[in-house]
Amino acid sequence: MRRQQSLLEVFQSYTNWEEVDLESLWSNTQATLYMTFASLIAVFIIGLVLGLLLYETSRRDGAFAKAIYYFTTLLVNVFRSIPFIILIVLLIPFTRTLLGTMTGPSAGLPALILSAAPFYARLVESGFRDVDKGVVEAAEAMGASKLEIIGKVLISESLPSLVSGITVTAISLVGYSAIAGIIGAGGLGNMAYLEGFQRGRNTVVLVATIVIVLIVFIIQAIGDIVVKRIDKR
Amino acid sequence: MIELKQINKVYKTKQDDVVALDNVNIAIEDGEIYGIVGYSGAGKSTLLRLLNGLEKPTSGEVSLAGKALNTLKNATLRKERQKIGMIFQHFNLLWSRTVLENIMFPLEIAKAPKAKRVARAKELIRLVGLEGREEAYPSQLSGGQKQRVGIARALANDPTVLLCDEATSALDPKTTEDVLELLLDINRKLNLTIVLITHEMQVIRRICDRVAVMSKGEVVEEGKVSNVFRNPEQEITKQFIRQDTTADSEDVITILHELARKYPEGKIARLVFAGEEVRSPFISKISRSCNVDINIIQGNIQESQEDTVGSLYVQVTGRPEDVEAGLKQIEEHHIEIEVIDYA
What we know:
A: MetI-like fold, 10 helices, B: alpha/beta, 12 helices
């Protein structure tokens, strides 16, 4: 029969530093960073386009615009409501066909992108909505084209919201990537679960956690600094 | 020359149709300052936006220097808009850009080369008196300074017309005065046609050559500012003029009530006079010739573009037939008179 551990022993089980394989820690950190930032780039682009589409079509009366708006909204809402763990399982066959594998960091990307892009699209849309209508009108009155208004007014004027939105999205992607890791995509989540929990190495779990927290803190700090620098309101 | 011919504008909503403009006809000469005054919802904002194609008329024609704006294709219309500056009540500057960059914005849209953009923007900064603030952001400026940036930005592409959408309504009286002075100055220097909308009659009086009074989508009165101030025809015009010429109206009304109670035999009247009459000593003349006493309750005199407009509250006392005769004589001096009955 297993002896009941005392609380002190539990604490001590988190400090067996020799359990931690630094090489594995480093490669898993890289895998997490790769998953987070590769998906973040795709999320930024897709989210911007979708967000713009939502913004532009929501204000129009035409039947075509309305149809696009409702379709996009539906898409966004559906993917936002699927729990990530289910989405990743749902996409396994798709990922396998697309990438020829269902393990490794790249295998996590489709699910990460599909779950975060609609979320970011909503943030982009609300960022654009917050741009002063008067400023858009002023640009129209100067003879600006649609494209110039998007580039020079909507995006420039909503840049702080776009940046703080991408910061929030990046942080949630770090979290998602850990879940993806458990399914087999590698990274710090995978390390904490397989190398740590499964083998009873609590210290490994703790170290993986600390690294994830550090990554999140750094992302948040960078985001805050950038927003502070560009926000002249 | 800007012409609006038989303009109608109807907004269709789910419930019913809202008529924003009802058979509006206006012709604005080159180089003049044309004011449109009306309460909110009178349709003046829609009217102004017809002039740069931000709104299209439901029917009728908008022509600018002989070109029909309302039929232009989008690309041509955008090109045309570069020659029509516009300033706004809330300035509508881009907060993400500095003063200099804001002024360069329309030049970017007009695809001017970088060196020319900077040179032109600096020139405009001098014109509007913002030297030293080039690198400031809008959030660091006062309201008056923001409107100066707005004006500089509107002038960037050498427009022939400047549209002002309640440009001074968000400013305090002193700043309003400065901005109006600047508008008058650029109108003279650049021979720029200015069309402005406002709900403040003092703006019209200070800088406009001609005025149109709007009510419920219609132009109810139009003419030279001095004529309209002297002989307003519509009740709404009189209201606007009164609002402008009556300082401390509440105090005045209290005093009027008080006097009407004390001297029920006399008559209290409000006189509005302009031009020559300002300089004639008509009060003492009438007082002597009709044997009445004239007591001045409140008065003021204000400058307009080309004229002086004064208003005066007086109490006329004496024998009833003398009072009647006195009032009649005042009218013969081409002074607008309104007998106030507070009894």
